[in-house]
C-alpha cells in the first residue's frame, strides 16, 4: 500500500514516492490501521475480491483513486509487488464468518 500511495502522492501532491505529503501520510496511517484490524489477518484477499469494506465511504473513494492511478504504474516501478498482487487476486475470498474454527485458529483469530 505504501508504494502505491507514494506513486500517487508524488504525481498529485507535493510529496515524493519516499516522503508523503500530510494528507497522504494520514491516509496511509488510516489504511494501516484498517489492515491491522482485518479479520482475514495475513490471508487478506485483494480489495477487489474482499467481501468486507474496510474503509469508510469517503476513504473508499480515495483508495480507489490511488489504486486506479498507481496500479498500472506499479508494473514499471515495482514489478515484483505488482505481479504478486495480481496472483493474490486469483484467490477466492471466503467471508470470515464462513471459516471453520480450525481455519480461524490457523489465521490467529481465535
Mean pLDDT: 83
Ends: how far apart?
27 Å
Radius of gyration: 15 Å
Question: Biggest sheet, in brief?
Answer: none
Helix content: 55-70%
Shape: globular
Total of helices: 5
Q: What structural category arises from helix and sheet content?
A: mainly alpha
Helix-strand sequence: HHHHH
Query: Multimeric state of these chains?
Result: single chain
Give the number of domains: 1
- Unreliable residue stretches: none
Question: What is the number of beta strands?
Answer: 0
Determine the strand fraction and express it as a percent band. Answer: under 5%
Mind sketching the topology for me?
Elements: H1 2-12, H2 22-36, H3 57-77, H4 79-88, H5 101-106
Helix pairs in contact: 1-3, 3-4
Structure description:
The chain has 110 residues and is mainly α. It has one domain. It is built from five helices and no strands. It is globular, with a radius of gyration of 15 Å. It starts with a helix and ends with a helix.
Short description:
The protein has 110 residues and is mostly helical. The chain has helices at 2-12, 22-36, 57-77, 79-88, 101-106.
Notable features of this structure?
110 residues, 5 helices, 57% helix, 0% strand, globular
Amino acid at each position: 500500500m505504501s508504494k502505491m500511495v507514494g506513486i500517487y502522492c508524488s504525481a498529485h501532491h507535493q510529496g515524493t514516492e519516499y516522503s508523503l505529503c500530510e494528507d497522504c501520510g494520514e491516509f496511509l496511517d488510516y489504511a494501516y490501521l484498517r489492515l491491522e484490524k482485518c479479520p482475514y489477518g495475513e490471508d487478506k484477499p485483494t480489495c477487489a475480491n474482499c467481501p468486507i469494506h474496510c474503509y469508510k465511504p469517503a476513504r473508499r473513494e480515495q483508495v480507489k483513486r490511488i489504486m486506479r492511478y498507481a496500479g498500472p504504474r506499479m508494473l514499471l516501478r515495482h514489478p515484483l509487488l505488482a505481479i504478486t498482487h495480481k496472483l493474490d487476486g486469483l484467490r477466492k475470498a471466503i467471508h470470515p464468518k464462513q471459516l471453520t474454527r480450525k481455519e480461524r485458529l490457523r489465521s490467529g483469530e481465535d
